[in-house]
Amino acid sequence: MFPSIRLSRHRQTAALRNFNRETDLLPRHFIQPLFVREGIEADQPINALPGVSQLTVKSAVARAHQAAKSGVSAVILFGIPVLKDARGTSASDPNGIVQETIRAIKDAVPELAVIADCCLCEYTDHGHCGIWNGPDQWNNDATLARLADIAQSYADAGADIVAPSGMIDGMVSGIRKGLDDHNHHHVGIMSYAIKYASAFYGPFRHAAGSSEAFVGDRNHHQLAPTQRQEGLREAALDVNEGADYLIVKPAQHYMDMIRDLRNQTQVMIVAYQVSGEYVMIKTAAQQGVMNEQAAFLEVFTGLRRAGASSIIAYNAIEVAQVLKNRLKGDD
Ligand code: PBG
Prior knowledge:
The chain is an alpha/beta fold. The chain has helices at 14-19, 57-70, 97-108, 140-157, 171-181, 202-207, 229-241, 255-264, 275-286, 292-306, 316-328, and strands at residues 30-37, 44-45, 53-55, 74-80, 113-118, 131-132, 138-139, 161-164, 188-195, 245-249, 268-272, 310-312.
């Protein structure tokens, strides 16, 4: 009891604070998202997502080099195709924009892990994450065959991991079977298992060029923010279906889910700081009311404390550089 016990005793010097630190935040904990756009000659800054651009294949490779150099473990790729149609045909095109980028990065930066986001919403003209034939005509099971084809084409191109992000029932087992049937036993699945229907995806829809024709919402397949047990059930099902990694998204506003999941599963948990969460901090910093670097580091440390093994962050490379310099003692 006080006065013999004083916890501030552990905080008196930098050495003691370092010695007592419970949570580490290191460059290797980060995954950098990259948006690659077909048919552009130069990078296009995304107004809705300050600091992020839609990239050509060439500049995606340059970013991949920077990622590896800063100690980031992986990139996760999102594609913006020229052609959109009802079935999202270009998503599984062997010469599609993501497939080309995977090959180029694997060739130039083999030490970096390449994850390919696997969803139809960027590729369909109606903007839904799968086969949709009009209001109330969502076809979960027909979507599964498309996802298996897309995952297979990403694996053919050399992806290490595919990341189905649509919250489609059966997506993990469907993709696993498709991969195994084509000898891609070594390709992992990172499932967006706990994905909430969230207002915080707003800026992403601009970044990924999701169809302007989109009508409706994703409430029939993504989780409602009220759901905790149901989220854990989703995660348990995905683990049973063979998921190698689980994503919680959005991460920052759902840290309770990260912790619950950490306590009940052995699978690696990935926290996704989504576009709206990123923009909130960026905007506050631009207004001069908050220190950007300190705020990001605090949130990312919080995600690690909650139990995340890795973090998907739009400024992953930048943050990893800061952390790397700190480790070197330059900062
Ligand atoms: C679907 C996908 C989305 C995000 C990542 N993958 C959009 C959605 O579900 O509507 C959102 C990520 C973010 O907001 O940063 N391909």
